[in-house]
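Interim report, section 4.2 (structural modelling).
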Amino acid sequence: MLEDKSRWTPYWQAAPLALVFFVFFLLPLAVTFVVSFWTYTGYSIEPAFVGDNYVTAFDKCFASLPDLCTTFRTYLSTLRFCLLVWLITLVLGFTIAYYLVFEIRSNTVRIVLALLTTIPFWTSNVIRMISWIPLLGRNGLVNQALMGAGIVSEPVDWLLYSPFAVTLSLVHINTVFMIVPILNSMLRIDRSLIEAAYDTGASPWQTIWNVIVPLSKTGIAIGSIFVVTVVMGDFISVGLMGGQQIASAGKVIETQITALQFPIAAANAIVLLAVVLMIVWVMLRLVDIRKEL
Amino acid sequence: MSQNEKGGLTRRTLLKGSAITAGFIGTTAVTGFPAVHADEPITLRYLSTATNQSPAIAAKAKEVTGINVEYVTVTTDDVTKRIITQPDSFDLVDSEYASLPNLIPSGNLMGIDAKKVKLVDKLATVMTKGEIGGKKIGDQGTAPHKVFYLEKQRGKTFANEPTEWITLIPTTYNADTLGIRPDLIKRPIESWAELLNPEFKGKAAILNIPSIGIMDAAMVNEAMGLVKYGDKGNMTKEEIDKTIATLIEAKKAGQFRAFWTDFNESVNLMASGETVIQSMWSPAVTAVRLKGIPCTFQPLKEGYRAWASGFGLPKTLKGKKLDAAYEFINWFLSGWAGAYLNRQGYYAAVLETAKENMEPYEWAFWMEGKPAEKDIHGPDGGLLEKAGTVRDGGSYDTRMGAVACWNSTMKENAYMVQKWNEFIAA
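Predicted structure of the assembly:
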């Protein structure tokens, strides 16, 4: 009897969360999937089972190769931001976490500094985005400084509403997602391992590469999943910082929802989900998170 | 679908004062007046964008009619979405005429009984007939008079002749054009074609709401002589292709600094000098000017793109709430609200009653295009224009008379949205 109870205990404990996931995640997802095969007019959606929405999503995509169709071009652009932001946040996140864990001695200082990295979250996304304009705009602080120092004679336009601006803001927002899991992994590293590496004559770089990086792999993988999924689905930063001139999968979906074209928006959402899942799957193939947690 | 969060800057700041005073008036109204409705006061859930709502109007309505107005504030697109997906979540809606081709077939709105609307014969002819002083104005797109009447109360088709069932009773309407920074452009701007003039390379913007952006783009294409449209508000696939092609070419050449979707973005772009010429809405121009930055809502020789919105009733409304809705609509048309809207730079549905509620110098400035005799104040008392200024575009007759097309829902809407996404990705 007692054994029976304890065998079921973990399931009961997991049940509330599972229920929440079921109602607010799995169910809506299933509905989205079903609706993606429906047909629509300007004012109604009709149950059906047609692949039209997917055909429209990939309209002329294969016929027009090697020219890229809208969907491919959108995803290529999003993937490019994804890769770039991932690389930069990884280097930044790793460096900052390393500094916090191995260079800071005092625990209090470490906590204070770690909290400082969350500053970008103190303001809303929109405020954060709008505040870039006086900094990077044509008449912004950076341009005034550059012109004042005589480095340029005309304001530099590519600072704002450009791929540069999008990358900058995405890095700004997402670095903390990388810092926290890596920090967590690094804190668990047994210091004696590093001493051992040092004692056996490893250079600091060798220690980082052969000891710390492998032992931080879980944190890196979790951080990467955070960053990649957020960037793939982002359309607010891309929209605001790119001056809405840069396409993103999320924006395409939003435009279609606004035009009441729910089924095709659903189809695009499913495509986006599939792409993100593939990326996550590849990352999980590289690092077995569960084994190393 | 243009008035997305239009109220944002101006309204929020302008109305603070009046909201407080209105609050007081509201309180006295409850206690001091004998309630018009002896029993429980009726509450109407009023669905619309922020543009069409103001605490002062709600307070005045309460004072006069005893009806509680509970605003449900959403964006323009969400007004449409709500009517279609949650028709029971409101008692009165203020929606754009342009969305009617999608709303009426859904069957979620019912025709408004013309006999119960006292001033129905006084409604502006711009709305009911598409004419001013007997003269026809541009009616491309979903012009209100084309979708004004229903065949029957619960009909799903529009009537070609006036009937006793009205789709929406007009609340506000206006004529939109390009906004410019005269201080940075330093020469007269007279045509929509200037939006794509290479002189303004990297300093132009268009709005990224497909249904409206495409209309502005069509005005530009037509002005440049690139495309001849049958009806800009109802393009053929070929016309859409050509229109988008011009936009893509301009985008690739670096013509646009940015695209915008909400009111505040357009204000920021213009005020910061990131753009000098762009699609714009009238209160956004006022908001830029209130910062002390010169900005003109530039009249252009090809004319304006107009929009209009009005009250609709959900099909399920009945009993006391239905009576209250009619009472509220009648009060709304009786002048006080109309004057309030006129002072914001919009136009009221019944001009005569609005005029009675405005000072002669106000009427002369807003409606007759005459230089302001005194400083012009907004509905809450905030300074809008100094004495001596003339309203951009002039009088009501000149502005509304020069309308070229109306916001619309096209038959090829799905295709248009697809092409618009292509433009954004290009």
